Amino acid sequence: MEFKGIHWRELAEQWGIRREMKEITDILNVPETIKKKIAVNGKIVIFEIDDEDELIAEKLKQYIWDHYDMESNTLDNQIKQDMKDFLRALASMNFTIPKCLKPF
Predict the structure, then answer these.
(1) How many Å is the maximal CA-CA distance in the chain?
(2) pTM of the model
(3) What angle do CA 10, 15, 16 make, to 5 degrees?
(4) Across-strand partners of 46?
(5) Are 18 and 10 in contact, with CB atoms under 8 Å apart?
């Protein structure tokens, strides 16, 4: 796949990561959610991610960690190449800075 460098979700598409639907009953399907645990002021807080972009971002991070070998400190070569190709495409994009954000 040739990356355009427009959005990180291109990596998700390349790796087959998407939001799934959970079947609750024969006629009721609900979008997938992920529970995330974080520490806030020394306390553990568990919350449920239901926003699609955040959910896919979490799944992307987990996918990368799943393909990382802690013992040899290496990442799967194809994952690494995809990330490099995406960042190369992102870096080659021509972004126009809005006039209101340009320095005086």
Answers:
(1) 61
(2) 0.72
(3) 95
(4) 37
(5) no
